[in-house]
Amino acid sequence: MNWIPHHLPFEQTGYFSPLITDYLKEVKALQPFYAHPVTREGIQASIAARKQAPVNRSVLVEVLREQYRDVADSATVRQNIDKLLDENTFTIVTAHQPAIFTGTLYFVYKILHTIRLAEQLSKEQPENHFVPVFYMGSEDADLDELGNIFMGGERLVWETKQKGAVGRMKPKGLEKILVRIEGELAVLPFGPELVSMLKEIYLESPNIQVATLQLIHRLFGAYGIVVLIPDHGSLKSLMQGIFEEDLFENTPSELVNGTIKEFPANYKVQANPRAINLFYLKDDLRGRIERVGHEFVVHDSDIRFDEAGIREELRAFPERFSPNVILRGLFQETILPNIAFIGGGGETAYWLELKGLFDHYKVPFPVLILRNSFLLIEQKWKEKLDHTQLSIHDIFRSQETLVNELVRRESNQQLSLETELADAESYYGKLKTLAGSVDPTLGQHVAALHAKALQPLKELEKKLLKAERRKFGDQQRQIHAIKTGLFPRNNLQERIDNFMPWYAQRGPQFITDLYKYSPGLPPQFIVLSEEASDRLFL
Q1: Is residue 109 part of a domain?
Q2: What strand order describes the sheet that includes 295-298?
Q3: Number of separate domains in the chain
Q4: In terms of C-beta density within 10 A (0-12 exposed, 13-18 middle, 19 or more buried), how is residue 160 classed?
Q5: Rounded-to-integer distance, Cα 224 and Cα 76, Å
Q6: Is residue 469 part of a domain?
Q7: What is the pLDDT of residue 412?
Q8: Is residue 340 in a domain?
Q9: Alpha-helix residue ranges (DSSP H) falling in 317-395
Q10: Helix, strand or coil for residue 381?
Q11: Is position 407 within any domain?
Q12: Which tens digits make up the pLDDT trace of 124-164?
């Protein structure tokens, strides 16, 4: 199977916020909110900063070895874990919650980007070693987001009554979704192999976070990706001082709120801190901690602590304290010798709010790298694009714009009143000059006549186009089918579709191909279109 790659500016797609497109352009207004540019020079500066702030590598490696104890051996992964004890080894990190069956395609894309950048830097800097790390947000409790996937346009929902951190949930109840997956994918070349792997991983794992680690290891372990589940007492004990300041002094919220106040007003704030940015995590509970008077109350429970009690709880059971989005990044950079973080648009946006927090606690702020994006165009859609004379760039424009341009191109009628409108502009411009020379106040009167005269012409142009569009019903339906097929639910394909149908058809080659076209630096939006001689779905 062969792909033809096309590279587009992120801004041209129309699916990225002004904050992200400005960040990519290194707009001056955003520069105070990050430490290093997304360049090789920025990477070098990040390495230098990290060398001045070492982490507890022995604790990190001990935890990783424990988490990989029952994982099928991969020499590359084991070597990468061992190398983390070396002071010249650094990590490249991406992060995501343990969405069932990976959730959406970009789960795969961000992992491959992390692998590629680590490989690129290791090759360019033989004196150092760079380990790709998947930092699992297993303590997230948003089952509505993590407990469903889309298959064939249908949303499949995990029906479970479990509560608390999704990573700690047992996989019971996923059998129903697996039956649905098998029914759709078993007829494809690699479908039986994929379904068998998923059944083994999910139905034999004690919880979702272990299943997610196993799945990532099966798909990407050969590339050396190391999965870290930070839900561990030894790791959280390294954050005890910061957690105490959050509970008793609300320092993190004050710092982040200060940064938000300085944030340019034209950008949307992604995450707002609470006075306390910790949850209490125990069994099936993940409840927000709030201070009420002299007590600390855990929401959705009857658990309460006085000041001495919560100090002792934090000392004895650090694993019971779970950082929210405000503290998660600081936790990550405290326990990992990290130099770069690869994330999506939303992740990049909220990290820009955290610079002051990192500065205060003297934790190095990593290079923030927007993850690579892909749009995959299989042959049937490529043929429709060719038939309608649409280019790769065209498909990111609105359906209405595409239909209007097609009608103007194909119609033998005059549908544009551009010449007539220009003539009217010229006519009223002369009138305004003439009237103004007699009485300057008459200029406003002519301007009003101008607007009143042009509006009907513009409306007539719209009606001409609308009437002619009725003759192009087939072409409109083709354009609608293309937009719906490539942009499910009016969104980027990678934010809706799952990797499984692609893998069931192509097998491990699907991962290999994406790996091949994933750049390290700089990040890119890549459209991969299938060559005419290939078939994705037969």
Answers
A1: no
A2: 304-306, 295-298, 285-292, 278-282, 321-323
A3: 1
A4: middle
A5: 5
A6: yes
A7: 43
A8: no
A9: 325-335, 345-351, 355-361, 379-387
A10: helix
A11: yes
A12: 999 999 999 999 999 999 999 999 999 988 999 999 999 99
